[in-house]
């Protein structure tokens, strides 16, 4: 009887370790919650047909150095991660958009499921004349971020909020949030569809 119980407990222990080992990489990292990002819209079920991002909205990780390097044009919203390519699909311009006021202050919020030492958070916005029915390229974005929040290598809290003034824009646009990790070669990407 003791041998059966010991074997059962050992089996449960191995199963628990296996689950932890296979899910540690899927615990992910972070996403933009305000204005709501495409991956969060998928994670909440607001948008369907999103593929694997539904289970990992926090995992849009790709090479850092954007816009000089990083994900290729047309794959910016997925961070160049093919598993999440549905985020790059413009869906005919039908992604739900957060209503924002041009030229006003906005508080940007990231939810972090794994905190990393951080270089900075940067926000880019599309140029006037942006076509939301096409995949995003660097040529669609203003060349400089409209907001940069330096972090100096500090590890942020699980919720990170910072305020900045929105550019003067009208109509539908896309904001690309980039969270650059300071001690790895990667960054996290989040695309938020907005309407001014």
TrEMBL record:
Signal peptide: 1-21
Keyword terms, alphabetized: Signal
UniProt keyword Signal present: yes
Region Disordered, annotated ranges: 61-100
Source domain of life: Bacteria
Residue ranges annotated for the Chitin-binding type-4 domain, each copy included: 29-194
Pfam families attached to this UniProt entry: LPMO_10
Protein name according to UniProt: Chitin-binding protein
């Amino acid at each position: 009887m003791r041998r059966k119980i010991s074997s059962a407990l050992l089996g449960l222990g191995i199963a628990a370790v296996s689950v932890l080992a296979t899910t540690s990489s899927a615990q992910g990292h972070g996403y933009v919650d305000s204005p709501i990002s495409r991956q969060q819209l998928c994670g909440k079920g607001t948008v369907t047909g999103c593929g694997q991002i539904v289970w990992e909205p926090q995992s849009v990780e790709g090479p850092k150095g954007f816009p000089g390097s990083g994900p290729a044009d047309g794959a910016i919203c997925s961070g160049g991660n093919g598993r999440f390519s549905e985020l790059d699909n413009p869906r005919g311009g039908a992604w739900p958009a957060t209503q924002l006021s041009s030229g006003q202050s906005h508080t940007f919020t990231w939810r972090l499921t794994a905190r990393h030492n951080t270089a900075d958070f940067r926000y880019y916005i599309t140029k006037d004349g942006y076509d939301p029915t096409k995949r995003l390229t660097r040529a669609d974005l203003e060349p400089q971020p409209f907001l940069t929040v330096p972090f100096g290598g500090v590890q942020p809290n699980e919720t990170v909020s910072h305020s900045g003034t929105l550019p003067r824009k009208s109509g539908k646009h896309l904001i690309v949030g980039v969270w650059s990790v300071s001690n790895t070669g990667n960054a996290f990407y989040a695309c938020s569809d907005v309407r001014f």
